[in-house]
Amino acid sequence: MLIYNGFNLTNLLAPEAVQILRPRRCGIITEGIHLLRTLRISSHVAVLATTVLVGVAAPAFAQDAARGAPDDMAARADADTITIGVGAAFVPDYEGSNNNKWSAAPVAIGTVGGFGFSVLGNRASIDLIPDKASNGLDFQAGPIGVLNFNRQSTKGIDDDRVRALGKIKTAIEVGGYVGVGKTGVITSPYDKLSVTLSYRHDVNNSHDSAIWQPTVSYLMPVSTKAALALFGSAEHAGRGYANTYFSITPTQSAVSTLPVYNASKGWKSYTLGGAVTYSLTGDLLQGFKLVAGGTYVRLLNDFADSPVTSIAGSKSQWLGAVGIGYTF
Question: How many angstroms separate the most distant Cα atoms in the chain?
Answer without folding.
Answer: 69
